[in-house]
Amino acid sequence: MNVVDLLVTIIVVTILVTIALGVVTYIAYKxxxxxxxxxxxxxxxxxxxxxxxxxPAAEAPPEAPPAEVPxxxPAAEVSxxxxxxxxxTQPSRGEAGGAT
Length: 100
Fold this sequence. Notes:
Layout: H1 3-35, H2 40-43
């Protein structure tokens, strides 16, 4: 058996074991859900397994006042210069300029 065959065998076995572990994990998850009945009032409540951590008041850092940001007055609005496309006396690109 050469090195390539050995590596292919290792990769295939790894993929198959990963799929098998995924199936076993899914079955265990479904069994866990089926084991405990859910009451109606529990179904609408907060998460059962994860709770937000709130540090004690002594460990909470003091809130800093917001930093002042220098404010510039808004710039005067500049209207764009009229272009040849806006001028009704000029022929547009699709027009031929003269009489046909």
